[in-house]
């Protein structure tokens, strides 16, 4: 990340005429999408004067900041003593399992009791993967047999979390492409099943999105949202070159707010989403 | 939202049809729209720009200018150019002994799954593949490859989970392979971000030690504008010999394919179209061009011209 602004200054400085195509390229490179990029570029062109690097950066930041919501993340245990249930969903390989582990660590470090459920009974060694994390972080885990019904794993875990008075239960599900209807209805079933022992559960349904993904992430969010009405988003791999600009479009169109960011493969490389930081980093 | 590319091409059609004569100006206007659609399909900016310029140059040529249906002609040029850019010679894998294939790529791209898919395919072709787990980071990565190998009955080298020296793992694996009667060795590596210098160094060391004939970059079809950075960095670090595009069973338009191919010149050799090990096939440039253009109808219209 960063570096963009420096590049920009060099480009804009000492130039009688700005190369609008190049400017457009830099904005597009953050995966902001053609639409938002055009809006920003059009506005700059409308200034009708020689623009400065500050103009560009300010305009872009203002637009992004106007779209994104204020961060108001407040994960608190429920007052009725029942577990607060978090469901993690997303397409294959985005970072659901790793983010499940990271989030459980985050909650634990705030003094809450946490349990995780390995509800990916499909992918090779998916259960073992979460199990390694759970052992490492000393967090209780509930798992099912390979190819067991993921809903039943979630049900059992929920039952156990209720019985033990666990404050947070995080359900890690299998990766699935949003184009697979049967797999999307499997998620609806998980949601219904979790509602059986507590009609208000699941309380937070988060899609995990890879920052390296382009426009398709919007499509992913649309389809998962149709199936289970998402409440939030985790954007992972922001330690890479992907800037995750697509989450701006996702919030703009679907109102799904970013809640956490992933910044590496280790448990501590994870934190609540901060709009200010994100807006700075994207530039 | 922006129109899909096929919509915008149809508009281009209509606009150009409306004009008795085609001018540089109205071609430029139409192509600007098409360029935006390419960007929406995640084709990298500079690649999209060069591509449009090339199409424009051809479109301004004699035959198009004089043709009765210039719009259709332009779309045909578009499609043909795209196919050519994505295609080139389909070089088969170099499997001459010692046949070693190194799988590299970003986190979660599909390397481990693809390693097993490739092993299954090679086995069907009558070769004797071996799988080697070289991911010492991701929890249960070794078990994952082990499980997949067992499913297809291919031996898997599983280093001790506490091992930290990758070159040593590779050395031990080569020794192990001597007794396995295998003919092709597939090395699955850990996912890494292309700008993570430490992990890229590690990969370079492994590559140098193995000196593999094939180094395949495994990339997610939904990759966005960073596709060029990803492909370039991996290519500079370890000299990739080909690309495998995964998760094409989704609806990603796959503009990354064009970007990666365009910037490295390395062929896309295979595609993954599902989580199951049999969901794996050879790459067809024409189909990919149609997908990026999202223009089934348009292509058939062109064919009737
Ligand atoms: N660099 C980096 N890697 C990450 C991050 N989050 C996850 N990963 C890596 O991405 C890869 C995939 O992560 P998983 O947690 O297995 O992803 P998943 O969504 O559970 O995958 P499936 O269950 O197979 O769909 C692993 O190599 C993780 O270590 C992150 O924030 N940064
Ligand atoms: N739908 C679909 N899923 C795929 C495809 N290829 C791989 N996957 C899935 O993508 C996820 C990640 O695949 P892996 O093989 O673990 O990816 P990886 O590159 O080895 O991941 P790391 O080692 O953590 O970097 C898993 O859920 C796979 O099942 C594909 O072609 N289509
Ligand atoms: Mg997982
Ligand atoms: Mg792997």
Description:
The complex is a heterodimer of chains A (283) and B (305). Chain A has 283 residues and is of the alpha/beta class. Chain A has eleven helices and eight strands. Chain B is α/β, with parallel strands linked by helices. In chain B, strands 3-2-4-1-5-6-7-8 form an eight-stranded mixed beta sheet, with helices on both faces. In chain B, helix 8 runs parallel beside helix 9 (197-210). Chain B is elongated, with a radius of gyration of 22 Å. The two termini of chain B are 31 Å apart. The interface between A and B is large, with 50 and 47 residues. The complex binds guanosine-5'-triphosphate (GTP) (2 copies) and magnesium ion (2 copies).
Quick summary of this structure?
Chain A: Pfam families: SRP54, SRP54_N. Chain A: Residues 82-240 form the AAA+ ATPase domain. The complex is a heterodimer of chains A (283) and B (305). With 283 residues, chain A is an alpha/beta fold.
Describe the global form of chain A.
Answer: elongated
Tell me, what is the CATH class of the largest domain in chain A? Alpha Beta
On the 0 to 100 scale, the average pLDDT of chain A is 91
N-to-C order of helices and strands of chain A: HHHHEHEHEHEHEHEHEEH
By CATH, the topology of the largest domain in chain A is Rossmann fold
Fill in the keyword field for this structure.
heterodimer; A: 283 residues; alpha/beta; Rossmann fold; 8-stranded mixed beta sheet; 11 helices; elongated; B: 305 residues; binds magnesium ion; SRP54_GTPase_dom (chain A); membrane (chain A); GTP-binding (chain A); P-loop_NTPase (chain A)
List the helices and strands and how they pair.
The complex is a heterodimer of chains A (283) and B (305).
Chain A: H1 4-12, H2 20-28, H3 34-46, H4 53-67, E1 84-89, H5 96-109, E2 114-119, H6 126-137, E3 141-143, H7 150-164, E4 168-173, H8 181-197, E5 204-210, H9 216-228, E6 232-236, H10 246-254, E7 258-262, E8 270-272, H11 275-282
Parallel strand pairs in A: 1-4, 1-5, 2-3, 2-4, 5-6, 6-7
Antiparallel strand pairs in A: 7-8
Helix pairs in contact in A: 1-4, 2-3, 3-4, 5-6, 7-8, 8-9, 9-10
Chain B: H1 5-18, H2 24-40, H3 45-59, H4 62-66, H5 70-86, E1 99-104, H6 111-124, E2 129-134, H7 141-152, E3 156-157, H8 166-178, E4 184-189, H9 197-210, E5 214-220, H10 227-238, E6 242-246, H11 255-264, E7 268-272, E8 280-282, H12 285-293, H13 296-304
Parallel strand pairs in B: 1-4, 1-5, 2-3, 2-4, 5-6, 6-7
Antiparallel strand pairs in B: 7-8
The complex binds guanosine-5'-triphosphate (2 copies) and magnesium ion (2 copies).
One guanosine-5'-triphosphate sits between chains B (105, 107-113, 135, 138, 141, 190-191, 218, 246-247, 249, 272-275, 279) and A (92-93, 123, 175, 177).
